[in-house]
Amino acid sequence: MRNWISLAALSGLLVVAPAAAQEELVSGLSQDVVEITSDYTGTELTVFGAIERPAQSTPGDIVVVVRGPGATMTVRRKDRIAGVWINNARARLVGMPSYYFLASTASLGKIASGDTLRRYDLGLDTLRPDTAISDGSIVPYVRALVRAQVNNGLYGQNITGVEMLSPTLFRVRVPVPAAVPRGSYLVQVYLFRDGAVASAQSTPLYVDQTGFNRRLYDFAHLWPLSYGISTVLLAVLLGWVSTLFFRRSM
Amino acid sequence: MEIYLPIAEMSVHWLIVLGMGFGVGFLSGVFGIGGGFLLTPLLIFYGIPPGVAVATTASQVTSATFSGVISHWRRGSVDLKMGTVMVGAGLVGTAVGVFLFSVLRRMGQSEFLVSASYVILLGSVGGLMLTESVRTLRAGGSAGGRKPGQHSWIHGLPLKMRFRQSRLYISAIPVLALGFVVGVLSAIMGVGGAFLMVPVMIYVLKMPTNVVIGTSLFQVFFVTAAATVLHAVDNYTVDIVLALFLILGGVFGVQYGVRVGAKLRGEQLRFFLALLVLAVAARLFVDMVATPADLYSVAAAMP
User: Fold this and answer.
1) What is the largest CA-CA distance in chain A?
2) Which residues contact B216 (CB under 8 A, 6 or more apart)?
3) A24-29 and A61-67: which strand pairing?
4) CA-CA distances (angstroms) from residue A237 to A232, B61, B183?
5) What pLDDT was estimated at residue B152?
6) Is any Cβ of chain B less than 8 angstroms from the Cβ of A83?
7) pLDDT tens digits, residue range B187-246?
8) B109 touches A: beta carbon within 8 Å
9) ipTM of the assembly?
10) Distance to chain A for B186, nearest Cα, Å
């Protein structure tokens, strides 16, 4: 009897919702770790993926988001006081992504409603800090931060950034600038159909210094006094060597 | 070829950094200034985070001034006694300055006060030096700021000491006060303070110009070496890779600078230094008054 019920339930499920259960997003990264070495000048990551067992013949919309570790930033506003521009107001924004890149197949407004986009933090204008202390509304400060980060290449949004190689295969090139913050990143891929998320997948990505750089960074943070003294000794040594060099050559 | 800076966490072109070090080192050798007030803004303009720029500049100035001190030492143009008295007062001043700076930062106006004090100090010092050097150049005199036989209130002060190299017999009080003030300024403004010290030594203490330069390099060396270590310990902002390239450029710049400086007459040196100081003051003043391109500025909070 019990077997009968479960079998009926199972077959019912298969009949009622075959598409939602089966449609699946598979994606991967060209590399899981970005290693910052001495000659690192920025790089490019490729996110590629496929829609397996597509529910409809029409391709859905793909949105790919790469988000860096959260950071605390202070944004200050200058005002003119007695003819001089002075920092007069500020906001401390906690939990803004240190890196944010979004690519999609169409403009975000066509893919989903504003509410849906905000729920998934999709789009530069949906970014909000976790908490904030500010003089007045946080909105102008957040906008200023996004503007500055876009100028630095740390925030980006490309509404034609997802290349559809076939109705089910896609690829995204993600720019990783030289000034990229270290830490653990999250790459999220969403498949939208009719304004709703039909499938999603996320993959971690790590950005870290390696080799000699890493050792210097650790030295500076673990033994700051020795590091500082070493820097002074290096300075003194090079200063002294240069005078010897000049005495011989002149 | 680009190189990655492990502390600044960004990459820079090595030739540009080397060139900056050379240029500032050259000026440092000519005028006996550390050059921090030029190098820090240059680095920030190039995109280095301000904290790293200030701290790493200190290490470059340490090296450039050490190289300069050795060259001046061989010429006998370092007044060791005067320098030692100033360094002692300077280290006390640095400690007081570090405390003052933290108070200013809590008030939230440190940036404005730093710019304003730069403009006022550089503007008045530069203006005074410019008028004096032009007057001396016109008169065709070569005695410089030193007028033997002329006595001022400085000579009435007690605690007299003899400074043989400077051919002076004056009170230690103005020397200590100068060292102290320069120490305070170097902590607040992130510079060695020689641009302030050089004119005071020339016009108030009436030291010979060539000894002034060697002695101020001596003082700046100790102050910036201490600042480098303090920044490394407190803020982790000294980038040794950036420092290496700035230093390599800087030490050669200083050596050429010292040779060029030796060929110039005292009042010519002061004239060019005055122009340089006034140019930096004008630039900072324009920045304070002109409408900024973006009213908002972003600073990453230290973790």
Assistant:
1) 104
2) B32, B33, B194, B197, B198, B201
3) unpaired
4) 9, 13, 24
5) 62
6) yes
7) 666 666 777 788 788 877 888 877 888 888 888 888 888 888 887 887 788 889 999 999
8) yes
9) 0.78
10) 17
The one-letter amino acid code at A67 reads R
What's B15's DSSP letter?
A: H
Read off the tokens for B74: 């061989």
Q: Does B131 touch chain A (CB under 8 A)?
A: no
Structure tokens at B170: 């004056």
Of B173, B231, B201, B190, the C-alpha closest to B97 is: B190
Asked if B18 and B249 touch (Cβ cutoff 8 Å), the reply is yes
pLDDT digits (tens, 9 = 90+) for B160-202: 777 777 777 777 788 888 888 888 877 666 666 777 788 788 8
Chain A contact probe: residue of B48, B251, B259, B288 with most A CBs at under 10 A: B251
Answer for the pair B277, B90: CB distance below 8 angstroms, yes or no.
Answer: no
Alpha helices in chain A (DSSP H): 2-16, 18-22, 108-111, 114-119, 139-151, 211-222, 224-249
Subunit contact A87:B3, Cβ cutoff 8 A? no
Tokens linked to A236: 């003194």
Q: What is the pLDDT of residues A11-39, one digit of tens each?
A: 444 444 444 456 788 888 888 888 888 77
Are the beta carbons of A92 and A134 closer than 8 angstroms? yes
Q: Using a CB–CB cutoff of 8 Å, tell me whether A145 touches chain B.
A: yes
